[in-house]
Specification:
The complex is a heterodimer.
Chain A lengths: L21 H16 L10 H24 L8 H7 L1 H15 L1 H5 L3 H5 L5 H33 L4 H32 L3 H28 L3 H7 L4 H12 L10 H32 L1
Helix pairs in contact in A: 1-7, 2-4, 2-7, 3-7, 3-8, 4-7, 4-8, 4-9, 7-8, 7-12, 8-9, 8-11, 8-12, 9-10, 11-12
Chain B lengths: L4 E9 L4 E10 L3 E5 L6 H8 L7 E6 L2 E2 L4 H7 E4 L11 H11 L4 H15 L14 H13 L5 E5 L7 H16 L4 E5 L3 H7 L2 E6 L2 E7 H6 L4 E6 L3 H11 L4 E4 L2 E4 L11 H15 L2 E7 L5 H5 L9
Parallel strand pairs in B: 3-8, 3-9, 6-7, 7-8
Antiparallel strand pairs in B: 1-2, 1-4, 4-5, 9-10, 11-13, 11-14, 12-13
Helix pairs in contact in B: 3-4, 4-5, 9-10
The chains are: A mainly alpha, B alpha/beta.
Chain lengths: ~290, ~325
C-alpha cells in the first residue's frame, strides 16, 4: 500500500544565492528592453508592427542581393550608405513607435518607481533604456548593410573596396542610430502618453527632414548652395545624407563642400547624439528626485 | 537587537514645505506601523530611507547603511510597495516579477524560482500568467507585494497596502503583513490611514504629524497607556454608591455608559500603586454589599494620540 501523498508547505525560504553587480543588472535591463522593443516578452499584437517594419526595411536589400547574385552585376545598384536614406520613413516610424515602449511605458504606469527602488541609480536605468533603443535601431540599420555586403561578396565584387565601403556605411549608421535613439528617447521620456510621443517624434524626424529638404531645394534653385548646406545641419536625416555624400557612397542634393563644412556636419551630428543623451539623463535625475 | 532603521534629526526642507522636521526615531524588527495624515511626511520618510532623495539635515541608517552614501546597498536589501499604481498592464505578473528580481541582482534561474515561490506566498495562482491589466485591485496589491519580496529583502516598506481593498481582501493582506513580519522574519514598516488596522498588525507604532514625531512606542503601550480601570457593578443604585464611596476614599470615578471609569494611579491623589487600586475597588464593593461584575483596563485607541494637546506630545 502506498502512502498518501502529502503536500509539504516549506514556508518562506530566504535567498542566500549570489547577487549580481550593477553592471550585470544593467546588461539584463538592456537585453529585456531590446526584446521588448521588438515586442518579444509582450503581447502578440505588439510584435506585429516592429516585425512588419523590419521586414519592409530588409525587403529591398533582399531583392538587390538576389539581382546581384543571379544576374551578376559589376557593382551594387544601391550604395551601402544610401540605403538608410531610401528607407528613412520606415526607420522613423520604427523609432517613433518603439521608443515609447522603452521610455513612456514605465513613466505612464508608474513602474519607474519599482526600478528606482532597486539598486540601479536613475541615470543607469536611463542609460540602459537608451542602449536598448540604440541597439534596436542599429539592428534596423546594420542588417541591410550586412545583406548587401554578403550579396556583394557572393557577386564576387572587389573584397577590399566593398569592405571599406561597408565599414564606412556602418560607422555612419552608428551616428544616425545615436541621433535617432537620442531624439526619440528624449521625446518619449518627456511624454507619458504614447500617442503624443509617436506624433512628436515623427514630426521632428520626418517633417523636420521634409522642411530641411524643401529649404535646400529652394536655396539650390536660387543658386545659393551655401545656404542649402547650412540648412542640412538642422535634421538628423539631412546630416546623414550630407555626411554619406561627403564620406561614403550616399548622395545629397546639397552635400557639404570644403573641409570646414564637412567638419561642421560631423560635429553637429555627434553633438545632437551627445545633447539628447545628456537631456535624457537629466530628465531621469529629475524623475528620481520628485 | 540591531535597529533596522535609525534616524537622527532627519530633516527634509522643500523650500515652501518642511516635509520632515528633525525626526529622531528607531525602528526594530517585526511590524512597525507608520501613522500620519496625508502630508505628515510618511512618503518623504520612505523616499529618504530608500536613498532616492537627499536629506536637508540630519542622518539615517537603514540596515546599517548610511542613506546619504550607500543608497544602492540599501535598495538591494529593501523591498518597497508604492501606494499608487505601478504595474504595466500588458505583462503577466510572473514575467514582470522575474524581471524585477533580476533588476535586484538575482540571476535568471534564481529569479524564476523566487518569483514562483513569492507569488505562491501572496496567493496569486493561475492568474499570474495573465496580463496584469485585467487584475482586480486585490490581485494588483498582491502582485505589488510579491515584487517587494522577490529579492528576499531584510526590510519591506509597505505604503498603504490595503488601499482600495474590500474587507475580505483587506483581512488577507493584513494577515500577509503579519506573516512577513513574524514568520518570514522580514522587518516591515507599513503605513495606513486606518488606525484600527495598524493596531491589529503592528508591534510598534510611529506617529508623524506635520513632519514631526508625535510618538513612537509599542502598540500595546498605546492601547494600555491610560492605566484607568473600567468597573461594572450590580445592585440597587450601585453605580452612584460606588462612585461616592470611592470619592470619599480619594479616588475619582466617573460614569461611562454602564461602567464606571476609575482614574489612573498617576492621577491618584494619595499616590497608591495600581494593585492597591484593584484592592480598594474590591473592598469598597464588598463593604457596600454590591456585586462586582468585572474590572478591566480602559483600552485606548491610537486615535487618542491625535486628540491629545500639543503640550502632551511625548518623545520616546
Amino acid at each position: 500500500m502506498t502512502e498518501p501523498s502529502v503536500i509539504h508547505d516549506l514556508g518562506y525560504r530566504p535567498y542566500s544565492g549570489p547577487r549580481l553587480s550593477q553592471g550585470a543588472i544593467v546588461w539584463s535591463l538592456i537585453v529585456t528592453g531590446l526584446r521588448n522593443a521588438f515586442g518579444l516578452g509582450r503581447s502578440g499584437k505588439s510584435k506585429v508592427l516592429p516585425f512588419i517594419l523590419l521586414g519592409l526595411n530588409l525587403f529591398p536589400a533582399l531583392i538587390l542581393v538576389g539581382v546581384m547574385v543571379l544576374i551578376g552585376l559589376g557593382s551594387l545598384p544601391n550604395g551601402y550608405a544610401a540605403y538608410a536614406s531610401s528607407t528613412q520613413v520606415l526607420l522613423g516610424v520604427f523609432v517613433a513607435a518603439q521608443a515609447p515602449v522603452l521610455f513612456s511605458r514605465d513613466l505612464r504606469h508608474g513602474s519607474i518607481t519599482l526600478y528606482l527602488a532597486r539598486p540601479l541609480p536613475a541615470t543607469a536605468y536611463a542609460l540602459g533604456r537608451w542602449a536598448s533603443l540604440l541597439i534596436a535601431t542599429l539592428i534596423f540599420l546594420l542588417l541591410p548593410i550586412l545583406l548587401l555586403y554578403i550579396g556583394a561578396i557572393l557577386g564576387e565584387l572587389d573584397f577590399t573596396e566593398q569592405t571599406s565601403k561597408a565599414a564606412m556605411a556602418a560607422l555612419l549608421a552608428l551616428l544616425l542610430a545615436l541621433n535617432l535613439a537620442g531624439v526619440s528617447g528624449l521625446i518619449a521620456s518627456i511624454s507619458t502618453r504614447r500617442g503624443f510621443a509617436v506624433v512628436a517624434t515623427i514630426a521632428v524626424l520626418l517633417i523636420g527632414n521634409g522642411i530641411v529638404t524643401a529649404i535646400q531645394g529652394i536655396a539650390i534653385d536660387q543658386g545659393e548652395s551655401g545656404y542649402a548646406e547650412v540648412a542640412g545641419l538642422f535634421s538628423p536625416y539631412s546630416l546623414y545624407r550630407g555626411s554619406a555624400a561627403a564620406f561614403a557612397d550616399g548622395s545629397s542634393i546639397a552635400p557639404p563642400t570644403g573641409s570646414g563644412m564637412e567638419t561642421a556636419y560631423v560635429v553637429v551630428f555627434v553633438a545632437i547624439a551627445g545633447l539628447t543623451l545628456g537631456g535624457l539623463l537629466w530628465r531621469y535625475r529629475r524623475v528620481a528626485g520628485s | 537587537m540591531e535597529a533596522v532603521v535609525r534616524t537622527e534629526g532627519l530633516t527634509k526642507d522643500y523650500g515652501p514645505v518642511l516635509a520632515l522636521d528633525s525626526l529622531t526615531v528607531e525602528v526594530g524588527p517585526g511590524v512597525t506601523g507608520l501613522v500620519g495624515a496625508n502630508g505628515a511626511g510618511k512618503s518623504t520618510l520612505i523616499k529618504l530611507l530608500l536613498g532616492l532623495i537627499g536629506s536637508t539635515r540630519g542622518q539615517a541608517r537603514v540596515l546599517g547603511h548610511d542613506i546619504a552614501t550607500e543608497g544602492a546597498a540599501i535598495r538591494a536589501k529593501v523591498g518597497y510597495l508604492p501606494e499608487h499604481d505601478c504595474l504595466p498592464p500588458d505583462v503577466s505578473a510572473s514575467d514582470f516579477i522575474v524581471h524585477l528580481a533580476m533588476m535586484s541582482g538575482l540571476p535568471r534561474v534564481a529569479a524564476r524560482e523566487r518569483a514562483a515561490e513569492v507569488l505562491r506566498h501572496v496567493g496569486l495562482d493561475e492568474e499570474r500568467y495573465r496580463p496584469m491589466g485585467g487584475y482586480s485591485t486585490g490581485m494588483k496589491q498582491k502582485a505589488k507585494l510579491a515584487q517587494a519580496l522577490v529579492h528576499d529583502p531584510q526590510l519591506v516598506l509597505l505604503d498603504e497596502p490595503t488601499n482600495g481593498l474590500d474587507p475580505a481582501a483587506r483581512d488577507e493582506m493584513l494577515g500577509l503583513v503579519q506573516r512577513i513580519g513574524h514568520d518570514f522574519k522580514i522587518a516591515v514598516i507599513v503605513t495606513s490611514h486606518l488606525l484600527g488596522e495598524l493596531e491589529r498588525v503592528s508591534d510598534h507604532v510611529v506617529v508623524l504629524d506635520a513632519g514631526r514625531l508625535l510618538r513612537a512606542s509599542r502598540t500595546d503601550e498605546f492601547l494600555d497607556a491610560t492605566g484607568a480601570l473600567l468597573v461594572e457593578v450590580l445592585g440597587d443604585n450601585a453605580h452612584q454608591r460606588m462612585a461616592l464611596a470611592l470619592d470619599e476614599a480619594g479616588v475619582a470615578a466617573t460614569a461611562r455608559g454602564q461602567l464606571l471609569s476609575i482614574e489612573s494611579p498617576a492621577q491618584d491623589r494619595q499616590g497608591r500603586d495600581p494593585r492597591d487600586l484593584h484592592d480598594l475597588i474590591r473592598d469598597t464593593a464588598c463593604d457596600l454589599g454590591i456585586g462586582l461584575v468585572r474590572i478591566q483596563a480602559d483600552h485606548r485607541r491610537i486615535e487618542d494620540v491625535f486628540a491629545q494637546e500639543p503640550a502632551e506630545v511625548t518623545q520616546p
